[in-house]
């Protein structure tokens, strides 16, 4: 198992704390990733020093979570999260501890963490501290709770989503007792904020194993948002044919959920999960477009672009190709590459031009629509003089 050396600014935080008599360890996800040979995106340190002592040692740092003992140490343009060893009280809301108390030993701090692979600590001398067998579980490619799984999920129901996300991201199995506790405690997911569920689902969708969504659904974690739990894992495998971008993965998931009868509509599902407006619009358009056969002519692709816009058309083409096969994306690219007109902003005449011809109100709008439809069918005729002549002759008629 390869180990990545932390950068110099992280080692500086560790050694500065130790030089002042405070124990200090790298901990959590950064240690897990280092042991897997993956460069961590964030660095977290736990220490016996109190938050005020950390702030005094590193001027310019920010007290980002003093209640929970967290200080963001700032060194130039780099940041390290430093948190005091702590013990947590009961979790009345199944998400946040009611109280936090600072303690003096590392093992107590590690015992409150979610999974064994996230409860490994690494001091500056490199001697791993692993009281719960996290290194063994990394080698066995296993997601296992620290302590009693049901208790961990009672404390924080979001951990059930995290277990499945880590499984999808790392390609690890979920230990039997941990998986059984997820199924047993799944009703607690209803107590979570929709935004937190949305974020976890999105992170899982963006992994290389989006088919793990079937496990999440089958466990009952999305029961508050679904009519049924049936979604074929084999169909979800097709999401790997899409770029790992949120819009495409959400759109494909919604199409499959509608197809399986799991949701009433894409709109109601995404609204409940608090998705942003652009994603909502494009996914709804995509679901509607995939209920019909794709265009077969260039002019029909341009009419689709006219009605739905580039974002929705591109999303629908990509999802169609991933789920159903075909060359929709290629056909759409050819239309876009041609530069041919499909919107009023590319039409060779404007509303002002038609005003000058005496057109007003509905007549003006109808004429613009007529000319755009004409140019979509005959792109070589998108010329100002010709269109003005056509508009004048049509108006006289």
Report on this model:
It is a single chain. The strands form 3 sheets. Strands 3-4-5-2-1-8 form a 6-stranded mixed beta sheet. A two-stranded antiparallel sheet has the order 6-7. The N and C termini lie far apart (about 80 Å). It is an alpha+beta fold and about 400 residues long. Strand 4 and strand 5 (about 80-85) form a beta hairpin. It has 3 domains: about 1-140, Beta Polymerase, domain 2; about 225-340, Methane Monooxygenase Hydroxylase, Chain G, domain 1 (Up-down Bundle); about 345-395. It contains 19 helices and 10 strands.
Largest pleated sheet: 6 strands, mixed
Strand content: 5-15%
| Number of helices, counting only DSSP H or I runs of 4 residues or more | 19
- Record field, number of beta strands: 10
CATH architecture of the largest domain: 2-Layer Sandwich
Query: Which value, in Å, is the CA radius of gyration?
Result: 28 Å
Text of the CATH class of the largest domain: Alpha Beta
How do you describe this structure in short?
This protein has helices at 8-19, 29-35, 51-57, 106-111, 134-140, 149-155, 158-170, 176-185, 194-205, 213-219, 233-236, 246-259, 266-272, 277-289, 298-324, 328-338, 351-356, 361-377, 384-396; strands at 24-27, 44-47, 62-65, 70-75, 78-84, 86-88, 100-102, 121-122, 142-143, 173-174.
Keyword list:
single chain; 397 residues; alpha+beta; Beta Polymerase, domain 2; Methane Monooxygenase Hydroxylase, Chain G, domain 1; 3 domains; 6-stranded mixed beta sheet; two-stranded antiparallel sheet; 19 helices; elongated
